[in-house]
Amino acid sequence: MLGLLVQTYRLVRAVVLLVRQPEGRALALLVVVQLVGGTVFYTLQEGWSWLDALYFCVTTLATVGLGDLTPATAPGQLFTIVFILTGVGLLAAFISMLAQPLRSAPERGRR
């Protein structure tokens, strides 16, 4: 349990460091806009609940793609293609920038 708390603290600290940088703030904003836009679209177009739509967006961008939710309409399928092509790159760039402070921070107790 302590390990989970330590890792959560490190993640939150890395996010704070990232959003203090202009590039990191812009990238974080783009990821949030992508997630909110996708959630709104799937809620309105596919009739999914807000939570289901957000869940689909996160699992899709994280390339997990569980398959429990799939767009049933042609506009939903077309939007998903664009959503994946634009969103996976954004999320990968965000995670890469997020990992930089974690990699550069010296580990305590190691030499």
UniProtKB/TrEMBL annotation:
Q: Which organism is it from?
A: Geodermatophilus africanus
GO CC annotations? plasma membrane
One of the entry's Gene Ontology molecular-function terms is:
potassium ion leak channel activity
Which InterPro entries has this protein been placed in? 2pore_dom_K_chnl, K_chnl_dom
Please give the name of this protein: Ion channel
Question: What main location does UniProt list?
Answer: membrane
Transmembrane portions of the chain:
24-44, 78-102
Membrane topology term reads: Multi-pass membrane protein
